[in-house]
């Protein structure tokens, strides 16, 4: 699966 | 999560608490730019669209809710609270922030990680946060004197983004494919905007005089 680009910062 | 980012989040939280304390304790918002507070509320609302969809951690979720709630509370106080709103420097807070909002949105349409609603609004919030302090800095320059709490507010706000930049440098060297160009470049611009304020704040601290910004 494509690298799930999640924003893990605020 | 590294210490720099955690420290950045804490200084950010402290800056908001300082502002809430100042407004609550003095029932006055003199020297505070409503436009900057509205821009921050917009930053949080557009950045945390994924609040209910992407669960990263309890810490992230709690902090997002705190930032959204506190920024809306400040805007509500400055607009609706009968006592506080009277002390708002309406005729000094004249920065035309709607153009800034438009420019950031256009930029987000052009420069984003992925052309999706969430990513465009995320990029928009990053660009907007970089310039959101401008109305406040203009207001401080206009009003000349900077009272302690407002000065500390801007100081902690500048420290937060500065710590985030250290966090990105740290992550760049410790994680393999870590790149956050949009946030990094925008964060550098944002911290740069504070640089002159920091300089005058340092001078006033060193010479132990009241903080005066050159008009």
UniProtKB/TrEMBL annotation, chain B:
Keyword Transmembrane helix found: yes
InterPro entries named among the record's database cross-references: ER_ret_rcpt (IPR000133)
BP GO terms, sorted: protein retention in ER lumen; protein transport; vesicle-mediated transport
Keywords assigned: Endoplasmic reticulum, ER-Golgi transport, Membrane, Protein transport, Receptor, Transmembrane, Transmembrane helix, Transport
PANTHER family to which the protein is assigned, alphabetical: ER LUMEN PROTEIN RETAINING RECEPTOR
The UniProt record lists the keyword Transport: yes
One Pfam family it belongs to: ER_lumen_recept
Domain of life: Eukaryota
Coiled-coil parts of chain: none
GO cellular component entries: endoplasmic reticulum membrane
Main subcellular location: endoplasmic reticulum
GO molecular function: ER retention sequence binding
Origin species: Brassica carinata
Localization, UniProt: Endoplasmic reticulum membrane
Membrane topology, record value: Multi-pass membrane protein
Chain segments annotated as transmembrane: 58-78, 121-141, 153-173, 179-202
Family stated for the protein in its record: Belongs to the ERD2 family.
Record's protein name: ER lumen protein-retaining receptor
């Amino acid at each position: 699966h494509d690298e799930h680009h999640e924003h893990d910062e605020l | 999560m590294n210490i720099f980012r955690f420290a950045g989040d804490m200084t950010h939280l402290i800056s908001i608490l300082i502002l809430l304390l100042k407004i609550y304790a003095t029932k006055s918002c003199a020297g505070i730019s409503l436009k900057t507070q509205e821009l921050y509320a917009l930053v949080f609302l557009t950045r945390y669209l994924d609040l209910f969809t992407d669960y990263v951690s309890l810490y992230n979720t709690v902090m997002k809710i705190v930032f959204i709630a506190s920024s809306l509370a400040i805007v509500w106080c400055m607009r609706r609270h009968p006592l506080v709103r009277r002390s708002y420097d309406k005729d000094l807070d004249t920065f035309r922030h709607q153009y800034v909002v438009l420019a950031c949105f256009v930029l987000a349409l052009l420069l984003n990680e992925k052309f999706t609603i969430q990513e465009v609004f995320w990029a928009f919030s990053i660009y907007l946060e970089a310039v959101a302090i401008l109305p406040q800095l203009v207001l401080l320059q206009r009003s000349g004197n900077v009272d302690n709490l407002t000065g500390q507010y801007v100081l902690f706000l500048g420290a937060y983004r500065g710590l985030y930049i250290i966090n990105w440098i740290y992550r760049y060297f410790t994680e393999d494919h870590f790149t956050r160009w949009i946030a990094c470049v925008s964060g550098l611009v944002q911290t740069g905007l504070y640089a002159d304020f920091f300089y005058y704040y340092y001078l006033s601290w060193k010479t132990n005089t009241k903080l005066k910004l050159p008009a």
